[in-house]
Amino acid sequence: PIPTWYFTMRHGVSFRKLGRDRLHRSSLLKNLATALIKHERIVTTLAKGKELRRVGDRMITLGKKGDSNARHKATIWMKEPLLVSKLFGSLKDRYLTRNGGYTRLLRIPNRKGDNSPMAVVE
Fold it and tell me: Mutual orientation of helices 68-77 and 46-65 as an angle, nearest 10°?
């Protein structure tokens, strides 16, 4: 027989767990967001890329706000403090006229070893 939890609906679930606990997941997303701001294009798995899109858009929104509270929040999320000035400088100017949708996800062929769906986040 099929267990009852198999049919439960995922109402109100707002993020992917990525097979990690809370601290590992937040550290992973901080590292990915830092790499995205630094290199402006990274290759990752599709699920991580979809979560990174949310974080990346929020970081650029903080950069567009430009006040001291936004800078403080960005400093907490960034692993490299020097990238905060890039976020509040050149990236702010680039996305000043755009209302959201700052990052995009492009699918690429699956990874060779485990056939995981891969994507480019830019």
Answer: 150
Q: Which of 99, 113, 91, 107 is nearest to 45 (CA)?
A: 107
CA dihedral for 101, 103, 105, 108, sign (positive or negative): positive
Phi, psi angles (nearest 5°) of residue 96: -65, -35
Low-confidence ranges of the chain (pLDDT < 50): none
Beta bridge partners of 120: 43, 106
What angle separates helix 46-65 from helix 22-39, to the nearest 10 degrees?
Answer: 70
pTM of the model: 0.85
121 three-state secondary structure: strand
